[in-house]
Write a structure and sequence with these properties.
The protein contains 1 helix and 9 strands; from the N terminus they run ββαβββββββ. With 123 residues, the chain is mainly beta. The protein has a 6-stranded antiparallel beta sheet with strand order 1-2-3-9-4-7. Strands 6-5-8 form a 3-stranded antiparallel beta sheet, with no helix packed on it. A hairpin with a 6-residue loop joins β1 and β2. The longest helix has 4 residues.
Length: 123
């Protein structure tokens, strides 16, 4: 059963599954918490660009806590990411975070319905 609250500080960082210069705190997941949503805290280092990708069935909600980068969304184009910004990517929409600036980037990322917990596989 999903705990009604958690301290983010008590959740361990894990390597980001798409980017070696990033890390994730999987705060709520179906696999770990039987949660119907996925909540992550994600940190990226300067210079990181994620590949363009889609989430076929879930909207992707991103809240920028710290840092700056550029965001790309199909149908919108590129726009700046900055603290306090909330980005809602519709399901099945091509998007990517690009060009993290020098101070790095820290975001909350929420998916509902939940997305699958994914661990980084080292080659």
């Amino acid at each position: 059963m999903t705990a009604p609250f958690k301290k983010e500080s008590e959740v361990e960082w894990e390597p980001h599954f798409m980017q070696e210069h990033g890390k994730i705190k999987w705060i709520y997941t179906p696999e770990k918490d039987d949660s119907p949503i996925t909540v992550m805290l994600i940190s990226f280092e300067e210079g990181v660009t994620l590949p363009d990708h889609i989430h076929k069935y879930q909207p992707d909600l991103i809240y920028v806590l710290k840092g700056k980068a550029t965001f790309f969304m199909d149908g919108v184009g590129e726009f700046p990411m900055e603290p306090g910004m909330v980005i809602l990517v519709p399901p099945n929409t091509l998007h990517a975070m690009r060009r993290v600036e020098k101070e790095g980037l820290l975001v909350y990322n929420v998916f509902s319905p939940a997305t699958k917990y994914t661990k980084r596989v080292e080659n």
